[in-house]
Amino acid sequence: MMSRTSLPDVSQQVDEFVLKCRQEGLKVTPQRIAVFRSLAESDKHPSAEEIHSRIVEEMPTVSLDTVYRTLTTLLEHGVIRRVESLPNVGRFDSNVDHHHHFVCTACNSIQDFYWPDFDALKPPAEIAKMGTIQQPYVEFRGLCRACKDLAEG
Amino acid sequence: MMSRTSLPDVSQQVDEFVLKCRQEGLKVTPQRIAVFRSLAESDKHPSAEEIHSRIVEEMPTVSLDTVYRTLTTLLEHGVIRRVESLPNVGRFDSNVDHHHHFVCTACNSIQDFYWPDFDALKPPAEIAKMGTIQQPYVEFRGLCRACKDLAEG
DNA sequence: GTATCTGCAAATCTTTTGCTCATCA
DNA sequence: TGATGAGCAAAAGATTTGCAGATAC
Predict the structure, then answer these.
(1) How far is the CA of A91 from the C1' of C12 (A)?
(2) What does the pLDDT look like over B35-47, one tens digit per residue?
């Protein structure tokens, strides 16, 4: 897999996006293209609000709720991704020890685990350019036992 | 570090909590104890709402905003932790390739990176009991270059 | 032509805040 | 007693939804 430190070819990404939409039975509208292009042009992992304020400049009538709806639709079709794994509700933990999480993508349950082999691993060299690590954290996303059993029926 | 697969001793944790509050100059109130105890008793990483509905049973006048305020205070003093690293605003990514993130805890910027050495690592055995992994994901939390330079003046 | 999408407005949900009274140290 | 915290109510911020008109295929 190619690293994306170099500028991605946005128009090519948009072309692929259009194809993917057709494949998925999604209508290709100017709003959807604008939302996707804005996301593809940015390396800042923007919020819905930020995407909206960026695209209103060229498309003044686009509404924020269309941006939200578009993002949700594209997420559901796997065209884009959300950085957070959990829905927007704060979740808290009285365990302040260094530990990691297994997050169930179906029921949003969270289980703690420890992983000394990971803790011993040396971060990749390119990280030094990004900043100073305070906490290395692993999240395994998947189906928990209960949800898997349910799914397999 | 001890694994917490066995039931933690909640009253001992509450005792430590009381000491920690005194150390930090925080008043020890019944509401704060109730919030902390509820969190310590749970292994479900509950939300503010869930903590509240749990403690109103024994303390009917406690308000939800007190729970929020208490959680915020305890977070600020490092007594508890929030599972998510980012504030409650959805952040999106057009890069659906397998990759990891460096998240700045000061400015919330996010940088992508790739890490084949991690991808090659075998998950700990205890994970099998938890469920089926779909995506292993690493998040390095720390200060990005810009924020670090700012902090160092 | 028709199912799907957009824009608008309003609603919902989560979290924060100002104020006043109560309480812990 | 004096600073800090709690409760109430209202506000703020993020996201979702119902509906009527518009548009992609």
Answers:
(1) 20
(2) 999 999 999 999 9
